Each structure stands twice: as structure tokens, then as C-alpha cells.
Amino acid sequence: MAKLRLALAQHDFPVGAVAANAARAAQLMAQAREGGAELVAFPELTLSGYPPEDLLLRPSFLAACDSELAALAAATNGIAALVGHPHSEGEVFNAASLLREGQVECTAHKQALPNYGVFDDKRYFRPGHDSVVAAIAGVSVGLLICEDVWQPEPAARAAAAGAQLIVVINASPWDDHKQGEREAVLTARARETGCAIAYLNLVGGQDEVVYDGASILVNGDGSIAARAPAFVDALLQAEFDPATRALTPIDWPVPADSSMEATLYAALVRGVRDYIDKNRFEGVLLGLSGGIDSALTLALAVDALGAERVTAVMMPTRYTSELSLDGARMQAERLGVDYHVIPIEATYQSFVDALTPAFAGKPADTTEENLQSRTRGVMLMALSNKHGRLLLATGNKSEMAVGYATLYGDMCGAYAPLKDVYKTVVYRLARWRNAAGAGVSRPTPIPEEVIDRPPSAELRENQTDQDSLPPYDELDAILAGFIEGEQSQAELVAAGHDAATVQRVVRLVLLNEFKRRQSAPGPRVTTRAFGRERRYPITSGWR
């Protein structure tokens, strides 16, 4: 039996960029043909990008996708191409069309429509009902789309129709548990059907979602033949042997570091880069406090965009320590960013003076502390407006969960790289980045003094985060159980947590939903991110 040479286009196809996506697909199709591929596959909804959301309600958008699909089909010229696109037939389907010999030969419709987590397919699409199998270079190839492979029936239907190889095109977002889950599902489908599986995934950041690529080849016996690196654009060549139902990768790139920290860091970098570049911002700025969160955010921004596109601003008051001033300056110098020190004591005091008559008879409290943070927010937004650089918020998931953040203060910003990263993980990432970036003649990008110091908002004398919150190890364990694990208070206490602490933390999470509704978007990297995935009512009697 002849072997089938195929190519998997693990690339970024941005939402709404229909003409540009078609042009990229045509370029990759030509590259695959030159490399000897007989079939090239592209990710889910190649032409529209994923998820196009309410763009799918616009007839002109659907028409543009149809037009580009026809033009792409005309350019096949000796290679078959599997292309994802929205397909309108009175109703709209999430489709994958096989293009060959200048025409659309057949079209598969996504059968299993996910409607959980970040997915909202049922809002826009109607389900397909059949698995399509096509003969390509003498091989029977089943054509499935993303969620189809997570259910047993579509793959079983493809196998019953004679498929030897199943090609699955995907827009599967990354989180810290996703790759293991994917491999378990793909292994199960291969063993159930005896079909080899070529799993192609989209790569790139789209608002709050980050797609990792990490495409996979699975042999017919369920063994993993190859894993592509995460967050890398690549045209992946492979060969399928129908006699053994085995796939062989051809010169696939190998990641230098496949640890969880390395992959998570790459996810955050990709999220920042794509959000800034796809929205055509010149660069970013952020408030650099001398603390761990802003330090990691600065490192991510520089790694994503380059130092020349990043501005850092330190805004000290009477409560800012020399350790903070020195730590911020050291990091700015080490990373080579544009750096400014703008004292805000006088500006803050002018606010206090103006409000003093209205505050008469009331003691100083968190109002004055928050006013410092809001003064910084005003300054940062003014700098953002003047210089055309997007403001990054630097808060982490632990803080956002319990409301340890100031509306219109440190929550100011249009994108929040650490929004879905717990504080304990912030420390892990900072240490990983230092280990990965230190050289013989190059200092670590994040000063050790910044990592080792007790975390503090520095809004009053001798303040630390632990004055107001449980230790972060304990806090994050409770939060992960309550948010990702959906555990009740009773279950958390049974797991060994102090009852009073659990009650307090849960109360804070529920109480601060209104703050999170006003927070900046940030890359989703856990299984339950705040935002489009975890949607709780603000007004609720449930405790």
C-alpha cells in the first residue's frame, strides 16, 4: 500500500481577518505541496478565525468566508486541502471542506457542539449528523472537527464508513490540564476504532483564550507517535502507513523545555503578544512597584514585545520602601526598558486635602489607602493616552478572587497578563524565568530581592498582604478547591482547612464578583478562569 504524506498547518488564523487568513492558507498550501504533501490540513474555522462570535450573525461576513473558500479551492493545484470555515445553508454550520482539483469536493459539519467553559457553539451553529470519509492518495480519511473526537460516536461512524486515518482539525484552548486530557481522549478513540489520528490544533492568543497548537499524532493502536511543541507556529509534515495504521513525524521541532512552568510562561507571553499586536498597539506600559506581580508582568511584556516597546513607571509615596525603589530600578535596568519615577505624594495629598471637609468626623481607613492606588491609576491612564501605549494591569488571580484590588486603581488597565495565575504560581514562574534567562554575563531579569521580600501593597506603614489575607499557600489551596474544584465549604473544611478561614475566603470570593465584572481581560490558563468561563451572578443570596 502506498503511504500518504500529509502536512498539518499549526498556525495562527486571527478572528475576522478573512482575506489575510486565506492568503496565509494559500501560502502554506503551496509550501506543503513543495514539500511533497498530498494533503494539508488547517485548523478549525481557518477562514473566520475562532471564535468569531457574533460576526457569524453578519451575512456579509459569511459571504466573505464563502468567497475566500472558493478562491482557495481554485489554488489547490495538485494538493488536497482540508479547510475550516463557517458554512451557511440557511442555517450556519461549523464546517471543514476538502478542497481538491480547483473545487470544494465535500464538506463535513461539526457534529458535537460544545457549550461549556469558554465554548458557545450552540449559540451560532447547527450540528451535523454524519461523519465524512474521503479517499486521498488511496487512503480513506475521516474528517472530524474538534469536539467530534471528544465523543465516541463521530469517530465510530467514520471507522464504520471505512476510515483508516482520522484527521481532526481543532481550535482547542490551552489550560494547565488540557494536554493530558487530549491525549487520553485521542488514545481512547484510536483504540476504539483502530484508526490512526492526526490531531491538528490552532495556535495563538484571542482575547482571553490562548491556543497552544501542541498537535499530536496517534497510531491506530493508541500509542503516541509525535507531539508538536506548544505555542510554536509550524508546518508539520508526517507520513501515514495504511498497512500498519502508523504515523511517522518528519523533522518535527522539539521543545527545549516542556515543563509546566515553561509552557505556562509561553502561554502568557503569547497571550500578551497577540493581544497587543492584533489590536495594533505600539507598545505597553505598566506600574512597576518593586513587588513580584509587576516584576513578572514586566518580564512577560519584554519577552513578548521587546524592551523597546515597554515602559515602566514607579510612583512612590511616603510608604514606598527603599527596597521597592531599588528593586524596580534594578529590574528596569536589567531588562532595558524605558523607565520613569513619578512621585505621587503631592498629588495624593491634594486629593486628601480636597476631600477633608467631606470626610469630617470620620477616621482614616482603607479609603485613604485606596486613594493612593487610584492616584496611580490616574497617572498611568494619562501616560497611556499620551503615548499610545496600552496599560497592563498587574494583579493576580488570588487577589482578584478575594477582591484584594482597588477599582479604578491597581485594577486600571486594558489587559491583565496574570489575571488567571495564582500568587503561588507567580512565584514559581518568576523563579523559572530567572533560571531560564540567567547567563554567565547577564543578571537574572527579576532581582532576587523582589522575589524574597514579603508581599505588600505599601499603602500604610509596615503593611504586608498577610495582614489582610491568609498565607498564600493556604489561600490558593482554598481558592483552587472552591473555584476550579467547585467544592463546598464543608468539603474544604473536610479537606483539612480551618473552618473560619474557609468561611471568610468564600465570602470574599462571592462578595467581589462586582469587581471582577469590571476587570481587564487576561489569558485563560486554568480550567476555571474569571470572565467568559466562570459566570456567577453579582446579586445572589447563595452563600
From TrEMBL:
Family matches, as Gene3D superfamilies: Carbon-nitrogen hydrolase (3.60.110.10), HUPs (3.40.50.620)
GO cellular component, one term: cytoplasm
Entry's Gene Ontology BP terms: NAD+ biosynthetic process
An example Gene Ontology molecular-function term: NAD+ synthase activity
Domain CN hydrolase: 4-242
SUPFAM superfamilies documented for this protein: Adenine nucleotide alpha hydrolases-like, Carbon-nitrogen hydrolase
EC number(s) per entry: 6.3.5.1
Residues reported in the UniProt entry to bind deamido-NAD(+): 370, 399, 515
InterPro entries found in the cross-reference section: C-N_Hydrolase, C-N_Hydrolase_sf, Gln-dep_NAD_synthase, NAD/GMP_synthase, NAD_synthase, Nitrilase/CN_hydratase_CS, Rossmann-like_a/b/a_fold
Physiological role: Catalyzes the ATP-dependent amidation of deamido-NAD to form NAD. Uses L-glutamine as a nitrogen source.
Family note: Belongs to the NAD synthetase family. In the C-terminal section; belongs to the NAD synthetase family.
PANTHER family registered for this protein in UniProt: GLUTAMINE-DEPENDENT NAD(+) SYNTHETASE (PTHR23090:SF9), NH 3 /GLUTAMINE-DEPENDENT NAD + SYNTHETASE (PTHR23090)
The protein's name in its UniProt record: Glutamine-dependent NAD(+) synthetase
Native source species: Rhodanobacter lindaniclasticus
Species classification: Bacteria, Pseudomonadati, Pseudomonadota, Gammaproteobacteria, Lysobacterales
